[in-house]
């Protein structure tokens, strides 16, 4: 059987562990408590369920291909796994927005204003106006 490269697994472990860690931090700070509890449960349960689901593959495909094939075939456990991973991704964006949203907004506006004043943008605007 084929498997995904080690770099994928490193990114996957970082993704799941960061979701768990941010949920624990949010829970300790008493922020977004319902979302944090769901994230703690899903960040522990989803990789276990995913392992148990993907280990049943018999063809020579890797884990990602197998999961996508099962989703396209409409298998409910694969769709639930996809929704769980999407929720974990949603949680990370929600956590970052609630904790660092004002700072990100401030620096993104500062960066945008600096980029707007570059000569490349001025030339582009002039060429579009003509």
Describe this structure in words.
The chain is an all-alpha fold and 130 residues long. It has helices at residues 6-28, 33-54, 63-72, 76-116, 119-129. α1 (6-28) packs across α4 and α3 (63-72) crosses α4 (76-116). 14% of the residues are buried. The mean pLDDT is 87.
Short description:
It is built from 5 helices and no strands. The protein is mostly helical and 130 residues long.
Feature tags:
single chain; mainly alpha; 5 helices
Helix and strand composition category? mainly alpha
| Mean pLDDT, all residues | 87
User: Roughly how much helix do the residues carry, as a percent range?
Assistant: over 70%
Outline the low-pLDDT stretches: none
- Put simply, the count of helices is 5
Shape designation: flat
Total E-strand runs: 0
User: What is the chain-wise order of helices and strands?
Assistant: HHHHH
Distance between the terminal alpha carbons, to the nearest Å?
59 Å
Fold blueprint:
Layout: H1 6-28, H2 33-54, H3 63-72, H4 76-116, H5 119-129
